[in-house]
Amino acid sequence: MEKYKHTQTGYVIIVAFATAMLLSAYFTIIDGAKWTAFSVIVFLGICLILCSSLTVVITEDLLKIKFGPGLIRKNLPLNEIASCQIVKNPWYYGWGIHLTRHGWLYNVSGFSAVEIATKTGKKYRIGTDAPEELENALKQSFKI
Questions:
Q1: Which residues, 6 or more positions from 135, have their beta carbon under 8 angstroms from its beta carbon?
Q2: Which of 24, 54, 98, 128 is the most exposed place for a label (fewest CB within 10 A)?
Q3: Running DSSP on this structure, what letter comes out for residue 128?
């Protein structure tokens, strides 16, 4: 049973990948179809599908983070979470999934995030356009 669910759409990511795909298609048509150009367009299309949104779900015992349709995902057991707090990511942290000095970042848009610290000391940042809602849902779920 889901206690919390929120999906954030990464409009800038969508526009960037779609623009890159259109430009690649345009130049492919002008220069003639080549398999490498076609491969680039397919790759950008896959990236567009996989990274266009971020869904956060809290169930009875798990925090689930998934990009796009869910091929890229992370599950954290709630009983491993020690704390959470709202944070602002600097602009240079960017978007996507990558390691920062504050742990792993999962983000598709904006700078607001909720930082989660586990009992083992690992940290994760989940980008969201509704940080207060996510923080409250997490705190209710693991009773901080």
A1: 84, 85, 86, 114
A2: 98
A3: -
Report the domain count for the chain. Answer: 1
- pTM across the whole model: 0.86
- Burial annotation 72-106 (CB, 10 A radius, 16+ → b, else e): eeeebebeebeebeebebeeebebbeeeeebebbb
72, two tokens? 């890229």
Its domain, for residue 135, covers 1-144
Run of H or E including 38: helix 35-51
pLDDT tens digits, one per residue of 42-99: 999 999 999 899 999 999 999 999 999 989 999 999 999 999 999 999 999 988 899 9
- How many helices (H) and strands (E) the chain has is answered by 3, 9
